[in-house]
Amino acid sequence: MRTFHLSSESPIVSEDLSASALAVGFFDGIHKGHQQVIRTAVQQADKLGIDTAVMTFTPHPSVVLNKSVQHARYITPLPEKERILQDMGVDKLFVVHFDLALASLSPAEFAEKFFVDLNIRHVVAGFDFSFGYKGKGSMKELPSYAKGRFTTTTVAKVSQGDEKISSTRIRGLLNQGDMAEIKTLLNRPYSIQGEVVESQTSREAPGPPMINIHMNEAYYPPAFGIYAVEVEFRGEIHKGMAVYSMGLLRSEQNEEGCLEVRTFDSDPYLYGEKIRIFFHDFIRPVIECEDREQLMEQLLNDERECRRILTLL
């Protein structure tokens, strides 16, 4: 997959690119609704004998248009999107820088720069996709801007449980720690990538040490709690338990939050390495313990429950 970084000031002319069927949207999460849009673009590309392309935007529009928002966290930060889209067989990824200049383009100007000039032959988007100044452009009006140079498909709302599948819904579930429901909406477990910053904590818990992870700040964090997880490092997947908290002992509080992981079948030295954590299920909320004996007993109970859940995967 080739990735192109674009802005309103640096378009690519059509002669430089082969024709594509394009799925366009912000696509944070690449959930079932997004997957339907992308699969439709793949089908159109196969039908027309052209490439499949995806267009996304960075940063989130709220960072640019809402002065109170300084930093956005994502279900799928850009590198995560690239990884998933590559696995979906996408040929091209257009990453468009969202700024005030882009937001000021009229719908017609947007269509010219980012559809016509990129040699797009077919545009696929969700029913609620909007573009151009103040979002005045819609999929209903897009054919009038196309002027016969490309065709369009609008994907209807995708729901589950009588509710639209959306990034907002998934973020709400992350706030609750409901990883099982999130897995059904994503068609995969929620995952984050982080770097091992300590080989083990100071707690002398039975079994392998807890690995301290610096979570990439671009990810939307889950609720504080104990989770049954799988951990990927060095090309292998290991079952384990994750603890995300401000500290399990009252004397060891960390206001920024601390993510720790224990794998059940290995005790590697991973300091400085990047690992991926797949969240499968929420075990319980965090309970502050008064002493280490109570903490050790609780962690052993948590590990037993995690092992039970993970054997059912």
TrEMBL record:
Keyword entries, A-Z: ATP-binding, FAD, Flavoprotein, FMN, Kinase, Multifunctional enzyme, Nucleotide-binding, Nucleotidyltransferase, Transferase
Enzyme Commission (EC) number: 2.7.1.26, 2.7.7.2
Pfam families: FAD_syn, Flavokinase
Domain Riboflavin kinase: 185-311
GO molecular function: FMN adenylyltransferase activity; riboflavin kinase activity
Reactions the enzyme catalyzes: riboflavin + ATP = FMN + ADP + H(+); FMN + ATP + H(+) = FAD + diphosphate
InterPro entries referenced in this protein's UniProt entry, alphabetically: Cyt_trans-like (IPR004821), FAD_synthase (IPR015864), Riboflavin_kinase (IPR023468), Riboflavin_kinase_bac (IPR002606), Riboflavin_kinase_bac/euk (IPR015865), Riboflavin_kinase_dom_sf (IPR023465), Rossmann-like_a/b/a_fold (IPR014729)
Matching SUPFAM superfamilies: Nucleotidylyl transferase, Riboflavin kinase-like
Family designation: Belongs to the ribF family.
Protein name listed in UniProt: Riboflavin biosynthesis protein
Origin organism lineage: Bacteria, Bacillati, Bacillota, Bacilli, Bacillales
Gene: ribF
